[in-house]
Amino acid sequence: EDQVTQSPEALRLQEGESSSLNCSYTVSGLRGLFWYRQDPGKGPEFLFTLYSAGEEKEKERLKATLTKKESFLHITAPKPEDSATYLCAVQGGSEKLVFGKGTKLTVNP
Amino acid sequence: GAGVSQSPSNKVTEKGKDVELRCDPISGHTALYWYRQSLGQGLEFLIYFQGNSAPDKSGLPSDRFSAERTGGSVSTLTIQRTQQEDSAVYLCASRYSGGASYEQYFGPGTRLTVT
């Protein structure tokens, strides 16, 4: 059974303090690993797809990396507007996405 | 362009009543998914539609849950005889199936409260 574990559950940073979020996964036949951002009361917003170990993608202050067992979402010099819950999901042999429970990030000014 | 839309945004119902939740996918997206997000839980897959193929219903938690997709576009998720444990946010997502990417795009969700 495909599984995703995210850590930490919650993270508080000061503005400008860089850090990383972790997503550990087990999946049979990885078709893709996905990162989403979710703001309170809204649906998940797509950020990145990673397909194979060694792949990296960047968007503004965010950089996602992938190994065979985990993915990291690196946040460089975060701003208060980066505060949100970040969700990791994997897709294996079926069409469904299997999600972790998320990391709630708070960036204080 | 327009994203995935869902209605209603909020629904409060009494235990035992039936509810219908609606999803309008992104135009041109042939794949449509329903997920449920309960407090403190991750998103849980419910059902998947692709074109005219038979839906994948493997995630539906009980036979009180059903869904249909008319004309390959709009989808309705129906919950019969609602229970308090059905309270959750119901999210719809769609995906373009014609390319090599697999990302799903989500709507804003319907928050269902069963009293």
Keyphrases for this structure?
heterodimer, A: 109 residues, mainly beta, six-stranded mixed beta sheet, globular, B: 115 residues, four-stranded antiparallel beta sheet, 0% helix
Secondary-structure map:
The complex is a heterodimer of chains A (109) and B (115).
Chain A: E1 3-7, E2 10-14, E3 19-26, E4 32-38, E5 45-50, E6 56-59, E7 62-66, E8 70-75, E9 84-91, E10 98-99, E11 103-108
Parallel strand pairs in A: 2-11
Antiparallel strand pairs in A: 1-3, 3-8, 4-5, 4-9, 6-7, 7-8, 9-10, 9-11
Chain B: E1 5-7, E2 10-13, E3 19-24, E4 31-37, E5 43-50, E6 65-69, E7 75-79, E8 88-95, E9 105-106, E10 110-114
Low-confidence residue ranges of chain B? none
* Strand segment count of chain A: 11
Mean pLDDT across all amino acids of chain B: 94
C-alpha end-to-end distance of chain B: 37 Å
Biggest sheet details of chain A: 6 strands, mixed
Rg of chain A, Cα atoms, Å: 13 Å
Q: Estimate the global geometry of chain B from the Cα principal axes.
A: globular
Oligomer: heterodimer
Number of separate helices of chain B:
0
Q: How large is the share of residues in beta strands of chain A?
A: over 45%
Radius of gyration of chain B from the CA trace?
A: 14 Å
Following the backbone from N to C, one meets helices and strands of chain B in this order, namely: EEEEEEEEEE
**Rough outline of chain A:** globular
Regions with little confidence, pLDDT below 50 for 5+ residues of chain A: none
Largest sheet entry of chain B: 6 strands, mixed
Percent strand of chain B: over 45%
Q: Give the averaged pLDDT of chain A, no decimals.
A: 96
Q: Give a count of the beta strands of chain B, DSSP E runs of length 2 or more.
A: 10
Q: What is the helix fraction of residues of chain B, given as a range? A: under 10%
Question: Span between N and C termini of chain A?
Answer: 41 Å
